[in-house]
Amino acid sequence: MRSERVVRNLRPGTLDGSLSIAGVECAGEGLRTSRNSVLVSPVLSRPAMDANVGKPCRFRYHVVLHAPTAMFDHARDIPVTYLNKAQTYTITVVDSRPPVAPAQPVQYRTRIGIAFEELTHRSNPALCWQLWHDARGGSDAERRGSSPCAVELVALKGCGLETPDPTWHLESASFNQFCVSWTSSGVAHSAECRILVRFHFLSTDFTQSKGVKGVPVRLCAKTERILSPECPPEGETEAEICYCRVKVFRDHGAERKLANDVAHIQKSIDRVEKQIARADYHGGALGKKQKRRSVARGPTPNDPTRSKSRSPSVSTPGDLYKVLYDLQQLFSSPLSVSVFSLPGDEQDDPDQLASITLGNHPPSSPDGMDVRGDTYHDGPTEDGLPGRPSRSPVQRSFSITPGKASAADPAPGELSNLFTVACFYVQIQKNRRSSAYYHAMYLAQRTIRDLALQLSKLARIDLRGIVRLVHVKRMGLSIIVDDDVIQHLPEGQDMIASFVEIPAVNRDMRCRPRFEVRLTY
């Protein structure tokens, strides 16, 4: 008697949430666990393997990108994570061996950067980044009104409440990396921080060839403890460099790629089941034609999800059952979070990445650093708009306190909706000329900051040139626009935005034009 036919034990409709499209939509948060076990289960319960030496690799600093991995063979593949361009993702850093009962708060420094995976790209990273800048990075930065930025720190605003969460300070940044320092209090009995990042490149941006597949890149993290006289060293203090592999797609390409992988594996399963059915029909013997045919053409090294579906030729029904089992196992292979489990080398050091420059765009300091693609400002002016950028020679550090809710701090699970909270229709009037059409203007947040940013893009002016926004009523009453006004604007409101230039006070012709934006609706 033939053995009972293998029944597929997992269908695409019953996949784990990390594989579903909804799982990727909420990639900004991913797995939520207690503070003491955030990196222990289920991901770190299996040893993280170094692909080069094949030995378990343990790190003191557990770094996790809260986005699910794609399907992969745990025995021989390195996981890769699909990400969407300009979507916000969360990275958590945990010190697994924090000092015991420290007298002073413990300080750490974490650097996040992008390095290349392919040897051809690693040999000349400056050229690859220049290709990205010339093809997409420069134009995208101009539309955002900021300097070129491949990976950016997303700054969250606190609401003034005291919380035990660690405080971050931005130390430095360049277009392909940034560095933050953070403090952990001994009261919490753990050292942990949370970083929000966005990516402004695609995996296909680093070549001049058209129609090529995107290459994975390395998302690298370097974490070290900052020593001070008040807090003497305990145990290991050297920095650790680790990374995970990611691919960045446009729009919702990550969801489409995951869905395509599921469909591809399902077709392979159906094909193998048909071959098993033929073998059962012929009494367990494959014909000569069946023996010569392979399940597929062979492994594809650049796509781990297809390695099992493209197996070598099989000659016995037992081999078919093994192939079917391996294909079914791929459905449960994705991890709910992406662990930085691979050790980096000197080329993956974010300090080395900071030395790469783009033509006339050297690495920037905190005084001129753009976070969220915009320039930091001293604070709101009396007109309700953020103040002018600080150019003080004294180094400034910008405090970012995670966990505090505000209009700019999205709640967990809502990061995927960050880009379309409101839509208005605007007609631009500038230099006594009106545009012929209304333009749809989408706000990421209902704030004066984001409204001014979108208006500056439509008018093609520098955001820093907008002094204030004023709502001019039909009766001639002028009202300063602030966050409260924008919060109560109805969805789909049409308005006319008139840019009125304000004369320079010091009559310096070199200063940028300054505008008052008058909104009529």
From TrEMBL:
Major localization listed first in the record, in broad terms:
nucleus
Domain Grh/CP2 DB: start-end pairs = 57-312
- Per the record, the domain of life is Eukaryota
Subcellular localization is given as: Nucleus
Name it.
Answer: CP2 transcription factor-domain-containing protein
GO MF terms here are:
DNA-binding transcription activator activity, RNA polymerase II-specific; RNA polymerase II cis-regulatory region sequence-specific DNA binding
Region called Disordered, residue ranges: 281-316, 342-410
Q: List the record's Gene Ontology CC terms alphabetically.
A: nucleus
Record bears the keyword Manganese: no
* Matching PROSITE patterns: GRH_CP2_DB
- Keyword terms, alphabetized: DNA-binding, Nucleus, Transcription, Transcription regulation
Q: Where is the composition biased (Basic and acidic residues)?
A: 369-380
The record, for InterPro entries, names: CP2, GRHL1/CP2_C, TF_CP2-like
On whether DNA-binding is a keyword of this UniProt record, the answer is yes
Classification via Pfam families: CP2, GRHL1_C
